[in-house]
Amino acid sequence: MILRMGGQTFWNVEIPLLWGNRAVLKDEKGRLSVIDLSGPVAKLEIVGDQPAEGVEFAPTVEGFKIFVSGIEQYRYNPADKTLVSASSKPPKCQILPDSVRIGESAPIGPNEVCGCQIGLVVTENGMVGLGAALPENLARLMI
Amino acid sequence: MVAKRIASTKGGAVLVSDDGVHHNASGDTEAHSVGLHRVKELDEAMEHLQLLTPAGKLVRDLIAPAWPDLRQAIKNLPESVSLFSVSEPRFIQGKPWPSRASARISVMLSPNAMLEGDLVILTENGAVSRIELTDLAINKKAYDPPAISLELGKQLPRKESDYDERVAALRKTLGANQ
Asked: What is the mean predicted confidence (pLDDT) over A44-64?
């Protein structure tokens, strides 16, 4: 199967983008979804550019913030497809039409990733990699 | 430095910056002396300027159907929904309206009286089912009663939800990817 996101092409990849412990996916209309994989089961946080049902959030001028147990986790701007962590870890991530920008670095892409569990990984400390195995402690990507 | 100069020449200013260097406590006295208010995001600046934020608007929309009931419970509440400020807003996403909202709100009862309290709104099936106001105070003095709880069934305006379509689109993406 093939998935295109942020200028990257992913072939037979389980998670196209892993941002910290969160999977980021783009649907056919270009809307982003974010799924937290840090717990025992995957938890949908953003679905198609909107907060998912049951998720704690607050709308802002630019989009919305996502909270867990009252603590802000990150902000999402649906207009420019930018995810900004409240703790700055992992660094800011923007899904551009033809590339992915992590932090303030130069845009990444276009690339092709084939046959890896993760296509593009952004770790908490800002390391970026193409093609990686799924960390053992993460939940299976299912909704 | 630019923000400080503008604040000192204009009699005050708001600096919006998420850079930690602009929020260091060592600059508090200096900022206060020129009327420079420092915030980390645009929504905080809007709250400071008493402008309606997107979160404030959502609280206002949710409280509106219950306003007549609140007016019966609280003396001198304005006829129309009039929130002076909404801070620390939080919502739990529902369909189509949030299932829960909470915030610290303040309402002007008169030019000399400001009511403050912690608001919780619960909704069910597109209607406001319950409103709670706690820690009520007028001009920082405890209101009598200090808490109000209303069981309601006030219908919210009809709002279309495309949530299911968004979930279906995500499932399709996941299906194509696994």
From this structure: 96
